[in-house]
Structures are given as C-alpha cells and as structure tokens.
Design a protein that fits this description.
homotrimer, UDP-N-acetylmuramoyl-L-alanine:D-glutamate ligase, seven-stranded mixed beta sheet
C-alpha cells in the first residue's frame, strides 16, 4: 500500500485506501476510478472488494483488478474469478497470474513472482479479454496489452524493477489513474501507464545502485516526468 | 505504519503498533502516550481503539487522535466522533477533516487529501477544541494549533511533503511523542512537533529530487536535528 | 512487510505474504521455508500461523519464528508459546523477547525494542533451544546463535540499524531464506544470515546520512554483495 500510494501521489493522483464494507456505499460514488488488489487477501476483505466493484460498475466508473498470485490457491483463484465476473475495465497481472485466470486453474506457482514470460501469456490474455470484456495487460520484459483483438507491447522498463516489492501493484494503480482521466480510451490509457512507469524505471536506473535506490529514483522520476522525456522514450508497438 | 514507525524511531521514541483488543489491558499501562489513527479503519479495529483510548484516559496518559478522512463516510465520521468523546489530549487533522469533525458532517471530500486550506478551518478548529477539551491542530501551508482560546501558527514545512503518503499520520505520531515527554504543556508540545517536522522537511528539501528522496532526507534530517538548526529555523507565531 | 519483502527480493529469494487460513493447505506445500512473524498480531491471524507451522512441520519444511514483543502482553506471550510447541527450526528475537519466551513470563518491556543486551540473554537462549529443539538467535550488539550446546556470536552490524523499523523482522526473513537453501545446516545458515545482514548494514553505513538512507543503502548493498566482501568482513566467533 505504501508504494502504491506514493506512486499515485507522485503522478498527481489523490489515492485513498479503504477496506471496510461499511464505507463502500458512501465512498465509492466519489471516486473517479476503483482499484482492487487481492495481494494480502483475507476472507473478510473479499465482500468489500466485491461490493465496491459492483457499485463502481453500476455507477459506470472504471475499475481495475490486480489478481495478485491468482493461481496460488483455490481460495484466491475463486476470489479472482468472482471479481472478473463483476466486469473490470482492466485486468493487469504477470504472465503466471493471467494464465491462471484464463485457464481458471491453480498453480504451479512461485507465489507472487511469475514463472512465465509475458509473451507466453499472449494467447491467454487474448482469451481472458474476450471472455471478460476487460482490457488485459501482462507485465514482463515486454508489457502486453490486449482487448481481445488488438495487441500492443510496451517495451519500457528495466529488469531490476522485479526486485522491488509491489512494483506490479503500483503500475496497476497507475493504470487506474490513467483510466480515470480518460475512461473512453482505456486501452490506450493502459498501454501509456505501463510505458510511463517503465520510463520512470529506466530514468531511475541511471542513478540507482540497487533495488532500494531504484525504488526511490523511480518515484522521483515519475514525479518529474515531462513531455520531452515521454516523447523521446515511449516505446509502444503493435504486436498483432 | 512504516513511515510512522520510522519517524518515531528517528526522533528517539520507541513505538509499538498493536491492534488487538486482547492486548490493550496488558500493554496500554506501559505506554507514555497513545496514538490512535483511523487511516485504514476496519470494523473490528474500532473496539480496540476505543478500549485503548478509554484506558489511557483513565490512567491519566496523554492520547492523540488522527481522524484520517473523517468526512469520507458516515461510518468513519461516527467512529471519529465516538473517539472524540473519549477525551483525546490532541486532535491533528487536515482542514477538511477538522471541518468534518467540527460540523459532524460527511463530505464533500477528496478522500484523504484536504480540499480546504488550513486557515479556512481556524474557526472549526476553535469550536472543536472548545467542545472536546482537546488541543486541535490543523495541518496545511500554515499549521494551526488551538486550545479554543489561543491560536498559534507553525510556518515550517514545504509543499512537496503532501506528495508523500502518511506525512500527516507521521506528524501526529511526533506530536504524541512530544506530548509524552511534556504532558503538562500539550499545547506547546503540539506546536513544537509540527514545527520540528516541518523543519526536517525544509532541510530534506534542499537535498531532494522528488517526493521519494524527500521522504528519505526528511527522516535523516529529523534524526540529525540539533539545537542550532531548531533555533534558527523554528517559525511559530501567535495568530490570535 | 515492505522491508521484509524487499530484503528477501534483494537477496535473491521469492517471498509471498499470506494471512488467510483458507490458503494455507494449498500454498504451504509449495514453499521452501515458512516464516511466521507475530508483529502486528491479531486474534484471527493466529489460527493461520498455527496451521501453516503445523503443516510445514508435517511436510518436513523448515520454519522460522519471530516472536515480536513476546513479553508485551499475556495474549502475545501465549501465542508465541503455542507456536514454539509447533517445532520451529529457528527462533530469532531480541534479548527481551528471548528472555520472555524462555521464562514464559510477561514484561517488563519497552514494547518492540529490547530493554536487555543480547549477552544477558545467552543463558535464556540456551534453555529455550534445549526446551524447544530450535536454533535460537538473539539480535543485539553481538548476535548470538545457539542450538543449546554450541554458542556462536556474529559481530557484524551497526547500531543505527535499530533506528529502522523492521530490521529485526527482516533479518529473521533472511534466516528463513538461508535455511531454505541449506536446511541440514540450520545452525550455520542462521549465523551466516545474521552476519550477512550485518555486513550489508556496515557497508550501507559508510554511505548513510541517517536511518532512512541507511535503510536504502543496506538493501542495495545486500543485493550487490559479492564473495570478496563476505570473506573479508564476516566476523563469527565461538562464544562457548
């Protein structure tokens, strides 16, 4: 939650973290986008997640799902599949998570880290997008985004970002912020968020001496990003 | 919790974070001050908060309330109002939170970020202080502290501190630590804590390249603060 | 959890954090080591901790216990004593925690910070190791490791590490990672992990300006550690 909140603040968004079902009816109508992350899932948080997702869908607000470690247990997989039924605008995971969701099957898994390359998940992502109606994004060496027909790849980022906990969670949050600003172009917003986060990583990497300083420089760079850096560095290509 | 704990450790305090009602009767008698923060409020944490506040009051120990996003939902506002009934020594919030508490009314809100300037909340702060018997502090461009009669402003700090999650929570923790040391002068302790945290921000800002490096430098500066820096930088004035 | 996860990732491990009892049966069989930390203990997490520990023991997987603030309350002490019954491979605490566990007695305590030196806890550690069958480690100016007969001291580290929250929790996580790699030499793995973490602290300290930059440099250094640094800096001695 710490890195997610700081990522959003640095990008100019105004995040609030709520878990309690009692607050969902009052608070959800005020958000511009909802972000549901199942990272440290517990049985009593799931009803809040579902209530918020349902309400967001009813109100026509975009909502984004991060199915962290979807294949790690039957409980977690079922929770994610139930959330997918509630019509997320975007689903962003690593290759193993998207494959687990697409096949609705548990493990083999390494936990929260992917044991697949993102390109291996392209077909799974396309199927999941078609079945769910969501934009599906797969993080990896190349980040993939698909709506079931179009597929683009965002080629920014550096490998050391995987050595920082919650970078996946944070880029999903950034996707939610971008989609909040431009809900009618969720596909483009998703690809842009992945690219922008990767660019912040690239710029941070030039100053970093390891994962912890990369984490710091990334957020600083995200905050300081200007159009010139974006124009010269953005690397998004059509993959099909 | 991470930034709060590190802020307290850097300032020389010895924090412990507990949530469970089972531990309150054993542990609360050992604390020098209690800090209750409703940030990620859940229904099952509220009884612990109230039990701890009640016990602290009974034992004559100072306790400090941070009514995070008080106006964001009816559930949260009621929780905060119930806590205010338990006689906090100090209440510290942003302008929107103090206005919500003072008027006992929900929203409009941006979530955890204030949609009001601190000076707009001066009258609300004074009323809340009178009604509750607490010192009330409002963070903002100028930090305001009032006991219902006196009002002082602490003018330290830099705007980028608002781009770091939990800086508000952390300064409230610092207030609790200062009040623990000098419980008979809670008004002065509160103003000093706000000023000291702002000074750490100012000193950190001279080295920072963005919000994440500011966060790091702030804590380092708080740890290294000496009397000379405090004497030359403290900027507290009477506002009425 | 943030520092723990980043410490593990920097050291090359692949951590996953789970709390929910529903996930234990599916997930625990996939881990190479289990780490149970009672830091922010709540009544509904305890059954998950016990179920995971029991399953790890049954499956012959190493598991490591961090009895955070064991003496702070009767509830916490009982929870820790119940966990000790489930045959942890290693128990790592500060002196006050190990003394509380060994005597099965509550406080006096300062909360999560130790009010004893590690050397004061040597006899308590030895007793606890004999009674429990676990390797027992006590962090402090000198880190002590004992299996009840042998006692070694790891002399690496710097005092400022105590001004960073969760460094104790993080070194216990590193012990779990080391024991996962070499479960047949848990005694040596524990001493090595304590020394390696201390070396990262020493190397980080040469660049640090305070606790927050030390935290960053420590993780960077842990990630960048090479055999030369380890060979020249490791300082482990027999204490009896």
């Amino acid at each position: 939650m710490d890195l997610v909140a700081n990522t959003l603040l640095s990008a100019g968004a105004s995040p609030a973290m709520l878990h309690t079902i009692e607050e969902i009816p009052d608070f959800t109508p005020h958000v511009r986008a909802l972000y549901v992350n199942v990272g440290t899932l517990s049985a009593n948080w799931l009803p809040s997640m579902k209530a918020a997702a349902q309400l967001a869908s009813q109100l026509g607000k975009p909502w984004v799902l991060d199915p962290v470690a979807a294949g790690a247990s039957g409980f977690r997989l079922n929770a994610c599949l139930e959330l997918v039924q509630l019509k997320p605008t975007v689903i962003r995971g690593n290759a193993s998570e998207i494959i687990a969701l697409s096949r609705a099957s548990v493990g083999p898994t390494k936990g929260v880290d992917s044991s697949h390359e993102s390109m291996d998940a392209m077909e799974a992502a396309r199927c999941l997008a078609e079945a769910s109606g969501a934009i599906v994004a797969v993080s990896g060496a190349v980040d993939i985004v698909t709506d079931g027909r179009r597929v683009v790849g965002a080629h920014n980022g550096v490998p050391m970002m995987q050595k920082i906990t919650a970078t996946g969670c944070s880029v999903t949050a950034l996707i939610a912020a971008f989609v909040a600003v431009d809900p009618l172009h969720a596909f483009e917003a998703t690809a842009s968020a992945l690219s922008v986060y990767g660019i912040a990583g690239e710029m941070g990497m030039s100053m970093a001496k390891g994962p912890a300083s990369l984490r710091m420089h990334m957020i600083d760079c995200l905050h300081g990003l200007d159009q010139a850096a974006l124009l010269s560095r953005t690397n998004i290509t059509a993959l099909s």
